[in-house]
């Protein structure tokens, strides 16, 4: 694989995969969720899968795509898990998420590594579609001034809570609840610039005022907006996606197309994945492209 996975000091484990499902441990709680890419048979016996405290299934016609069936009473306000020095609140959501995307863990470390290499230089980072803020926390922990942007007020509040739980409530983080395109276009008009941009655009989404986002229709406009707010001497770009039909090469091509030709740097691309602790297989979960200035 293009990138190693940090299993140490992470209170999350992928216990087993197979038959289009995955069995996961988030701290003390175990869940079964869909994994359409897990075409192979399960490894653990059914008795281990039956220890799951909740199962999420897709259903046609559901606004969220599916629903949870919970077998035990979970903490009403969620619970905490750690990733090294970061603390995340997790709990099942209507869309089948638990509050973090574990396949992003190598990227969290990569973000902190890039910032540490800058030896304390003040860096402004924009995290677009920031969700519950894992990448924001990673950047803030390494000293960056971070702008966390997401159209969901609930996600931004969750990210702010994660920062507090991680003991970094005093770090310079701005929280923005707004449509991504509108915000970046306004930042361009203001002359605001960022030294690093973290991008994880969804396949589909809606802004706070009903703005529609469809990645195949909006990505070129989005990349142009990113270029317009990139500083003259940027440090890094991180671009990830879970969208069907995309690949790491697609992401690299988009950055190459829209990155100013005067900027020199190196690319690293690959699949995001989570290691299955039962079989040693890696469960694929999207793609990444990283660019670092030379």
Describe the structure.
The protein is of the alpha/beta class and 294 residues long. It folds into 2 domains: 12-90, Golgi alpha-mannosidase II (Immunoglobulin-like), CATH 2.60.40; 102-293, Vaccinia Virus protein VP39 (Rossmann fold, 3-Layer(aba) Sandwich). Helix content is 25%, strand content 32%. The chain is built from 7 helices and 16 strands. It has helices at residues 46-49, 105-116, 134-141, 153-165, 180-190, 215-228, 248-258, and strands spanning 12-18, 21-26, 29-34, 54-58, 66-70, 79-83, 86-90, 124-128, 145-150, 173-177, 196-199, 204-206, 212-214, 236-241, 265-275, 282-293. It has a 7-stranded mixed sheet, with helices on both faces. A 5-stranded mixed sheet has the order 1-2-3-4-5, with no helix packed on it. It has a two-stranded antiparallel sheet with strand order 6-7. Strand 2 (21-26) and strand 3 (29-34) form a beta hairpin. Helix 2 runs parallel beside helix 3 and helix 5 (180-190) runs parallel beside helix 6. It is globular. The two termini are 24 Å apart.
Index terms:
294 residues, alpha/beta, Immunoglobulin-like, Rossmann fold, 2 domains, seven-stranded mixed beta sheet, five-stranded mixed beta sheet, 7 helices, globular
